[in-house]
Amino acid sequence: MSGGCKDTPVLKERGQREVFCGLTGIIWLHRKMQDAFFLVVGSRTCAHLLQSAAGVMIFAEPRFGTAILEEKDLAGMDDANTELDREVARLLERRPDIRQLFLVGSCPSEVIKLDLARAAQRLSAAHGPAVRVLNYSGSGIETTFTEGEDACLASMVPALQETQAKELLLVGALPDVVEDQALALLAQIGIAPVRCLPAKRAALDAAIGPNTQFALTQPFLGETHAALIRRGAQHISAPFPFGAEGTTLWLKAGAAAFGIGPEKGDQVVAAPRARAEKAIAAAAQTLRGKSIFFMPDSQLEMPLARFLTRECGMRAVEIGTPYLHADLHGPELDLIAAGPTISEGQDVDLQLDRVRAARPDLTVCGLGLANPLEAEGLSTKWAIELVFTPIHFYEQAGDLAALFARPLRRRALLRGQHPNMLEAAE
Ligand code: SF4
Question: How many Cβ atoms are within 10 Å of 322's Cβ, its own excluded?
């Protein structure tokens, strides 16, 4: 499609960044994978981050924990591997329900160069086949918080069985209710069989091979995409299933990959699409004509900018993303009308200068930046909230638009204005 942002020169910045680390992903992954355990090999800081991000949930049997590296480990005075083996043996003895154990690296484990890949091999040999031990990094060094899920799923791909069957693999951890909606739509269109990565239980894991077609549900799964391509699977390239338009295009791309014509898709999606459009229209009354600035954080920026500009009438000033992945984000850039600055990476002070110069109606950013910007009279939306809230597919499209309308309504109320009159009054 001409007129999109695909040919817009990308502003690349490499400077100080303000993001959470990949350990955050454990909060949603442990809910999804019901027989997995995430053992962070890290410091007390890592343990605190996890506990506060999890809202200090007190489970009888939590599915994540931290093996704390003490000072003597960090100083190389003790063998952290011996301690880790002991911790894992204790854990698996106490928790025979665990089928997959993820050793999750952190900044401290990376700094002391603790080889968790070797540890995972050693522990798999000791505790397999009942328990599969994998490893990935959730470290905050040069990463952003959604990379934790990407690294986790990518670590699973080499361990999946081989198949020659033609199957659709749905990739990305969705809340169960949203995943069920997606599976129901795909079944109605006639796409089968469909498997999910991650599966709810290790025994349900997909097998993959050259006839696997995979569709990503999250735009931050670049490493997983690469790992699946290495296994010979084929990516169904499409916009992501956010909003009525994105969901429709995503479903139709899936149908086409399975030789199903667009008429069948049109017929199945007509009613839920109409419902979504109606729900979006209600929130769009507040959003229409407003400007939005995305700071790079969740990696959801491109598809959300596409949704907000095309379906809610917003105007994007700058769309920043930590990483711009041509295969994943290309279909989104094709659809976003030329005009906004497209930026990759961050130099936070320079970017804040641009926010202050543009004074957008809404800035999507991390928690650490939101309060200072609010104090300067700018409305903000926390990027991390978008990952913790169900926002995919038709039934959530209205909620997704409403998430962006809420801060604008709040500010309008504080100013004693009608929310839809905000721009006119300014
Ligand atoms: S992994 Fe690094 S950034 Fe994340 S909590 Fe631990 S020390 Fe902090």
Answer: 22
**Whether residue 107 has its Cβ less than 6 Å from ligand 1:** yes
376 φ, ψ (degrees, to nearest 5): -90, 10
Q: Is 25 in the pocket of ligand 1 (CB under 6 A)?
A: no
Q: What is the largest CA-CA distance in the chain?
A: 68
Please measure the distance between the N-terminal and C-terminal CA atoms of the chain and give it in whole angstroms. Answer: 35
Q: For the chain, which domains are there?
A: 10-16+272-425 (3.40.50.1980), 22-143 (3.40.50.1980), 167-265 (3.40.50.1980)
Instruction: Say if CB 185 and CB 268 are below 8 A apart.
Output: yes
> Over the stretch 145-195, which tens digit does the pLDDT of each residue have?
999 999 999 999 999 999 999 999 999 999 999 999 999 999 999 999 999
d(CA 11, CA 26): 31
Closest atom of ligand 1 to CA, residue 21? 4
Summarised one tens digit per residue, pLDDT across range 269-294 is 999 999 999 999 999 999 999 999 99
